[in-house]
Amino acid sequence: MTDDYAPHRDFIRPARGVTQPKVVLGVFGLFVFAFFAWPFVIMMVLPLRAQIAFYEGTSAAGTLAQFGIFGLSAIVFIKVLRRYHDRGFWSLIGPYRAAWDDFRAVVIAVGIVLTLLQFGLSSGALGEPSQYRNLFGWLLLVPVAVLAILVQVTTEEMVFRGYLQQQLACLSSNPLLWMVLPSLMFGGWHYWNANSAAEGLVYVFWAVLLGLACADLTARTGTLGAAIGLHLATNFTAIMFFATEGWPMSGLALVLYPYQDVDEISAEIAAVAAPWVIFSMLIMGLSVLIVWLAARIAVRR
User: Fold this and answer.
1) What is the rounded distance in angstroms from the CA atom of residue 124 to the CA atom of residue 36?
2) What is the DSSP-derived secondary structure letter of residue 193?
3) I need a surface site. Which of 185, 206, 225, 226 has the fewest CB within 10 A?
């Protein structure tokens, strides 16, 4: 491990108590089970109209409810963590004060950069918007959305960059294991966010790169603060500003663009070589590089 990653040694120390791979796999598996089981439980108690809003995520309430799944899954995960590892939430995050300082610095720096990129790249590039939401109503939603997205990204970070990164680093000091493997798993986790196979590949590519950036920041700082800040700023700007009308997770966007039929984008795997896929991957790769550099400057690491 390089000197740049010296703080990582303290970060992984809480994981050294229980390191058996079968326990780690089992704990992660229970989290995955809870994450996919909760929607079915919720759908069973909702009336039909609310079920549709929750499933599609095209309204503000539906989108926020989808984020709630992460919070419920996090509760299950923490209980399982205590049961099998005898440790809790803060053992995944790192020292509170350092984590807060890193989080605050990164979320501000990356938020500014991404907001400028979002409006700069989207202005005129996506055609004419079909709808502008009421600005006052949207502003009222912002604090609730920040909290909901914070729950989502904190859950993902504490599982992938907290739990898995810590546990795998106890098994090997090789970053190919503790940095790359969780990032690949994190990327695969995002395939189902897409509407087609081609779009899924773009999501996976972006998520793997974001995972690597967050893993690097975690190792450099010894806390999840910077990773959570980067992830929060990324998801907030992606969800809250621009979206396609009628698509999942569009319920909180300020500006909506005309609906596109998913079949026109193509659900065929052959479309992965289409120019728009390659261009999207290049843009996403560049954007992750920019925000990673911004985050490193913010934490001075």
Assistant:
1) 38
2) G
3) 185
User: Where does 108-155 show beta strands of DSSP type E?
Assistant: 131-132
User: Rounded distance, CA 177 to CA 180, Å?
Assistant: 6
3-state secondary structure of 242: strand
Cα gap 157→213, rounded to integer Å: 12
pTM over 0.90, yes/no:
yes
Phi, psi of 124, rounded to the nearest 5 degrees? 85, -15
Q: How far apart are CA 196 and CA 56, in angstroms?
A: 16
Dihedral angle of Cα 279, 285, 287, 290, to the nearest 10 degrees: -140
Give the separation between CA 95 and CA 271, rounded to whole angstroms: 46
pLDDT in tens, 136-168: 999 999 999 999 999 999 999 999 999 999 999
Q: Which two tokens stand for residue 202?
A: 């773009």
Burial of 136 (0-12, 13-18, 19+ CB in 10 A): exposed
Residues of the chain with pLDDT under 50: 268-269
**Quick check: 266 and 274 in contact, CB under 8 A?**
yes
